[in-house]
Every structure is written in C-alpha cells, then in structure tokens.
C-alpha cells in the first residue's frame, strides 16, 4: 500500500490509505454509483437477517477450539457479534467513504486481537459471502436481478475484506514498530538510569577524592607553612651554632696551645724529678757511708776505752810511777766516752737522714710515676685537642652547609605551601566540575526519559526492575539458568544467576525464555538486542494479546509493591534524619563525629570490621527503627543506613551477630555490621541523590552463595550536607 506525501507516493506503515488511493481501490473493485445504490437497497432488505448471519458466522469461526478459547479470553462472542452487525450495516449503507474505512479497520483489528490471522479472516469472508448470496437468492426470483445483487454483494465483501486485511498489515507493522520502539525505549531508559547513576556515583566518588585531596592539601599547606617556619628557625639556630662552632674552634686552638705547653712543662718536671731521684739516691749512698764511718769510729772508741782500761790497770800496777799515765788513761777514757756519745748522736742523726732519704726516695719515685702519667695524659690530651680542633673544623663546615640547606628547605617549603594552596583551589574547581557533570547528566537523563515517556506507544507501557528466576534456551536446546533484573511488555534485561559475566550471544540471536512469574506466559520467544555491562537486553518477539495483557498486569502489581517499598524507605529515612539531627541539636554527637571518615579496623575480624566515632551513637539510636522497618511489609530482607562511603555502622539484628574466629564464610553472611560494602550496588546507594532509586543486584553471602535482591535507596541529608543513604532490600 502507498501513501501520498509531498506529491510523491511512498510506502506507509501503520497508516491508512490517502483518499486518492482509496478511490482508486474502490473503482478497481467496481463500487460505482449503481453498485452502491444496489447495496443500499439490499441493506434495507438484509436488516432482519443480520443477527442470524452474525450467529452463523461466529459459529463457523468457533468450530475451531483454538478460536473458541481466544474469543472467550478476549471477552466473549456477543461483543463481536454486535460489532460485526454494525459493520455490515455500514457496509451496505455506505460502502465507500471514511465511515466504511473506520468500520473495516475496527473489525479487522478486533479479529486480529482474538488471533484470527489473515488466512482465517479470508475464510471467514467466504462464509459471509455464502450467507449473503444465499439470502440474495432467497429474495430475488428473477435471475438478472439476483445476478446484479450477487455481483454487488461480492464486490462489497471483497473490497471490505481488502480494507480489513490491510488493517491487519498495518496492525502487524504497527505492532512491530511499536515493539521496536518500546524495546528501544526500554534500553534507552535502562541505560540512561544505569549510566547516569554510574556517572553520578563516579562523580560523587570523584567529589569525595577531591574533597580528601583538598583536606590533605590544606593540611599539607599548614604543615608546609609550619615546616617553612621551623626550617627558618632552624636556619637561624644553625647559624648560631655555626658561630658557636667557630668560637669553639678558636677556643680549641688556644686550649691546644696551652695543652702543648703543659705537656712540655710536664716533660721538664719529669726530667727534674728524675734528677731529684738521682740526687736522693746519691744522698742515700752518702748516708750509708756515714753509717760506715760511724761504725768505724764506734769501733775505735770501743778499742780506745779498752785501751784506757788496760792503761789504768797497768798504771795501778805501777803505783805512783804510773799515776801520770793513769791520768792520761782516764782522759783517754773520758774522750772515748765523749766520742762514743757524739758518735751515738751522729749515728742517730745519720739514721734519721737515712730513713728520711729512703722516705724521700719513695715519694720522689711516686712523684716521678705521677709526672710520667701526667706527661702521658698531657700527650693524649694534646692529641685529643688536635683531633677536636680538626672535628671543630668539620663541624664548622657542616654547620655552615646545614645553615645554607635549611635556608633552601625553608624556601622549598614555602613553594610547597603555595603549591598545596593551588592544589586546594584545583580541587575546588574539580568538585565544581563534578557537580556540574552530575547536573548535566541528570538533565540528559530527564530529557531522554521525557522523550521516551512522551511517545504515544509508551502511554500504557510499564517497565520495572525485578529479580525473577528464569531459564533461557538456545536453538540447540541448551538451557541456561538466568535472572531477569528488568522487565517490560517489550523485553527484559537478563543476567547469569550466579552473578558472573553472562554468556555472550551475538546480536539477533533467537532464544526461548521461560519465566516463573507470571506462570501464564510459559515459553516466550525473544531475540538478543545488545549487551549491557554484566547483563543482556532481549526483545520479546511472539507475545500474543493475552500474554501481553497478563504480563502487563503482573508488572503493574510489581510496580505497586515497589511504590509501597519506596514510601516506607522514605518514611524510615526521614526518621533516621530526625534522630541524627536531634543528636546534633542536643550535642549527643558532634558534627565532626557524625561525618567521621577515619575507619579504624577492629583487630581479629574477618571480614574486617571498622570503628568510627559515630558507631556508638548509631548503635544506640538505629536498631529499633531499622528492625521495625523489616517487619512492616512482606519480603523485606534488610534495612540499613549507610554513610557516603558505603559504611554500615548498624545492621539489623539478624546480620549483627558476633563474629566467629576462623570462620569468614559464616561471618560474611551473619556479621554484616560495621563493614564497608563498596561494591557497585553499595556505592550507587551511598552516592545516590535522587529522591528514590531502584536497583537489582547480586548479594554475596559468602562461600560462593549469591542472592539476587531488589533495593530502593533514599538519600540522607543532614543540615544541607549529604551524609549517605537508606537501603531497603527485598525479594524481587
């Protein structure tokens, strides 16, 4: 079929013919004025037989059990009978014109919806021809009139059949185009949401890093300034040390000179001491000689006394003749006694001199040893003084170099401080750019979503994130267990059920999908559109009207439940915000504590758990709220508040059990509090700024066990500053 546009005939899909083409078709089928007049007369005669013909027609159609099932599923046969009778009236009353066109399309679409294919519709038209030709023969006895009436009826029925079958073609092409548009819109919507969320998450992460860089740059700026000031002070102090070192060098040189003089004096003293020692030794020898002389004199005195005694004896013998000799002998004796007395005194003095000389010799020997030690020590001191002077020279050189280096360090630290300040400014610029990027991406997403959702084919279309188990079968009958994570009446987004990278199918690959929900769908044919990260977009290619209706109803029910979950998540998030702001207002916790990002590992935990300064506060105020939320609606798995780094301080009671030593698998599943979950799902939730954000993800429960969950995330903002978010996860 063709349509006119801009003076040229073009093939059109999903649109009716132009008036020009319609007139050409009407003329081709012989529906001229005479024929239309005949039909109008026949219509007046056929009025009474239309109900019977409609009943006979659908009895014929419903002789096939599949048609009976389709008609009953679409609302029953009575509606179709009334529609068909109205169409016949229009056909005979006005077989050419807009009214007939619309009626033919309505009948064609009605039969297409119940599954009456064009081939079956042509057979149905044959049955209509039999009915009306029979009525003509019954009402016309004259062959010429009957022939004219039969020709008019057949022309009208076959022209009408062409119009209705044309609506089939238009409907089929329109349905195909609609399916393609919906599939494309689903992909655009999914990719827009996921891409913008991913970019938003990365931008938020970039913001965090930029903020950390800014803080570190600020801290570095302060440290650099302090170091520059310290380096300047050190340079001044080193300069003072250098001056002191020069003074020490000068003083060391003077001390060295004096020590050299002391060493010379010590050597001279040692020489004199040795001379004194020699003199004392000579004196001791003389004293020994005196003792010998005294001994000799004593011997002589003793002999003299003996001689005087003998002389006195002889003088006594001589009598008077020896009296004079006796006087001499007495004098000699007296002289000997005096000599002996004097010699005794001399001997005593000589003994004293001897003892003194010995004592003096010993002392001089001690003095000699001391002077020798002093001489040796003076030599060592002189050597040390020379070494100290050399070291002082080295110290002076090093201190001067250190002073110059400290001055250079101070200058470089000032440069570093300026660079840190520049980094801080750059970080602020990057943060602004990141915020701008997030805003631009949000606008882009809204534009894409606006374009998609303003499409006329999207008016009743529903697309929701899900977590539905399914199986997909290839043409070679190989089956794979998969998880549907996003579903609509046009197609689905599928992932491997183990959470790993899915099987890679070429675009256009035909697959058969078996869904567990809704059960009425059974097996659905689909084809691969394109991969999307760890998932694959597929398009449904064979949904009939009933399946499409059942799937749409199921999706609406899922969306209604999602809306209830979102409302609960927003309510709990508002409660958490109120509790946190009450804590800030009453000073039960400070702002710096509540926004603390210094995560301290808890020793001995596996997987590692962390402490922050707001952990104790969160453990006090959150459990009742979070555990209460889990019981509010069916299928909720957990409800937690996370900070902007995906840290979960307080979890629900079922997931806050004490860790078991050496059992990380059990701990992974049961001790999920005080941990950072910085996987994609956790960071998307942590960085989300949208009022409500849905996602489906695989949750690692340890030991290779993976559970797919749906989750709604709501941001938590405290006094205008983003703190984190609330995660409400439930079975999909």
Structural summary, described in words:
With 732 residues, the chain is an alpha+beta fold. The chain has a six-stranded antiparallel beta barrel. The protein has a four-stranded antiparallel beta sheet with strand order 11-16-15-14, sandwiched between helices. The protein has a two-stranded antiparallel sheet with strand order 1-2. Strand 14 and strand 15 form a beta hairpin. Helix 7 runs antiparallel to helix 8 and helix 8 runs antiparallel to helix 9. The two termini are 46 Å apart. The N terminus is likely disordered.
Count of beta strands: 16
Radius of gyration: 62 Å
Determine the number of helices (DSSP H or I, runs of at least 4 residues). 15
Average pLDDT score:
77
Query: Strand fraction band?
Result: 5-15%
Sketch the major β-sheet.
6 strands, antiparallel, barrel
Shape: rod-shaped
Poorly predicted runs: 1-17
Helix content: 55-70%
Instruction: Give the end-to-end Cα distance, rounded to a whole number of Å.
Output: 46 Å
Strand order of the largest sheet: 3-4-5-8-7-6
Structural class: alpha+beta
Features:
alpha+beta; single chain; six-stranded antiparallel beta barrel; 15 helices; disordered N terminus; 732 residues; four-stranded antiparallel beta sheet
């Amino acid at each position: 079929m063709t349509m006119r546009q801009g003076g040229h005939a073009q093939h059109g899909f999903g649109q009716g013919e132009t008036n020009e083409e319609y007139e050409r078709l009407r003329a081709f089928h012989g529906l001229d004025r005479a024929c239309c007049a005949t039909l109008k007369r026949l219509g007046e005669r056929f009025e009474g037989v239309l109900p019977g013909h409609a009943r006979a027609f659908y009895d014929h159609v419903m002789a096939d059990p599949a048609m009976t099932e389709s008609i009953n599923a679409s609302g029953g046969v009575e509606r179709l009978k009334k529609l068909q009778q109205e169409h016949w009236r229009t056909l005979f009353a006005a077989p050419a014109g807009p009214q007939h066109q619309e009626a033919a399309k309505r009948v064609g679409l009605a039969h297409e919806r119940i599954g009456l294919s064009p081939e079956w519709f042509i057979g149905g038209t044959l049955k209509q021809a039999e009915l009306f030709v029979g009525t003509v023969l019954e009402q016309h006895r004259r062959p010429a009139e009957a022939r004219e009436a039969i020709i008019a009826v057949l022309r009208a029925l076959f022209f009408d059949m062409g119009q209705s079958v044309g609506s089939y073609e238009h409907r089929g092409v329109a349905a195909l185009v609609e399916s393609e548009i919906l599939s494309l819109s689903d992909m655009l919507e999914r990719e827009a949401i996921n891409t913008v969320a991913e970019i938003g998450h990365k931008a938020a992460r970039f913001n965090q890093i930029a903020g950390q860089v800014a803080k570190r740059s600020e801290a570095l700026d302060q440290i650099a300034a302090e170091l520059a000031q310290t380096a300047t002070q050190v340079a001044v102090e080193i300069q003072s040390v250098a001056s002191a070192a020069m003074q020490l060098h000068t003083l060391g040189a003077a001390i060295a000179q004096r020590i050299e003089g002391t060493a010379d004096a010590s050597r001279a003293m040692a020489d004199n001491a040795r001379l004194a020692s020699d003199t004392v030794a000579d004196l001791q020898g003389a004293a020994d000689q005196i003792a010998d002389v005294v001994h000799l004199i004593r011997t002589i005195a003793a002999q003299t006394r003996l001689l005087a005694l003998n002389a006195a004896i002889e003088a006594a013998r001589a009598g008077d003749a020896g009296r004079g000799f006796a006087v001499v002998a007495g004098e000699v004796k007296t002289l000997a006694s005096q000599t002996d007395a004097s010699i005794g005194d001399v001997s005593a003095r000589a003994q004293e001199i001897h003892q003194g000389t010995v004592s003096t010799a010993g002392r001089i020997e001690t003095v000699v040893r001391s002077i020798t030690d002093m001489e040796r020590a003076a030599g060592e001191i002189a050597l040390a003084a020379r070494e100290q002077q050399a070291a002082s020279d080295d110290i002076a050189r090093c201190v001067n170099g250190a002073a110059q280096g400290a001055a250079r360090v101070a200058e470089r630290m000032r440069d570093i401080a300026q660079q840190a300040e520049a980094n801080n400014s750059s970080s602020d610029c990057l943060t602004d750019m990141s915020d701008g990027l997030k805003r631009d991406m949000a606008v882009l997403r809204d534009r894409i979503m606006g374009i998609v959702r303003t499409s006329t084919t999207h008016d009743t279309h529903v697309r929701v994130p899900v977590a539905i188990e399914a199986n997909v079968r290839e043409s070679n009958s190989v089956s794979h267990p998969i998880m549907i994570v996003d579903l609509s009446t046009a197609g689905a987004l599928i992932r491997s059920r183990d959470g790993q990278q899915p099987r890679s199918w070429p675009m256009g690959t035909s697959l058969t999908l078996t869904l567990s929900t809704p059960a009425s769908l059974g097996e659905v044919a689909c084809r691969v559109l394109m991969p999307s990260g760890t998932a694959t977009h597929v398009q449904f290619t064979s949904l009939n009207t009933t399946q499409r209706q059942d799937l749409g109803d199921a999706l609406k029910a899922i969306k209604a439940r999602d809306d209830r979950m979102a409302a609960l998540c927003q309510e709990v998030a508002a409660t958490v915000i109120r509790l946190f702001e009450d804590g800030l207002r009453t000073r039960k916790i400070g702002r710096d504590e509540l926004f603390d990002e210094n995560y301290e590992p808890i020793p001995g935990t596996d997987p590692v758990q962390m402490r922050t300064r707001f952990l104790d506060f969160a453990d006090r105020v959150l459990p009742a709220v979070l555990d209460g939320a889990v019981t509010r609606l069916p299928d909720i798995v957990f409800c937690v508040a996370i900070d902007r780094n995906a840290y979960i301080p307080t979890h629900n009671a079922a997931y806050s059990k004490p860790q078991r030593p050496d059992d990380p698998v059990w701990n992974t599943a049961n001790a999920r509090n005080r941990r950072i979950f910085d996987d994609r799902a956790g960071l998307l939730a942590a960085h989300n700024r949208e009022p409500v954000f849905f996602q489906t993800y695989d949750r690692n429960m340890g030991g290779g066990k993976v559970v797919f969950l749906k989750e709604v995330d709501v941001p938590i903002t405290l006094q205008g500053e983003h703190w984190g978010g609330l995660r409400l996860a439930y079975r999909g």
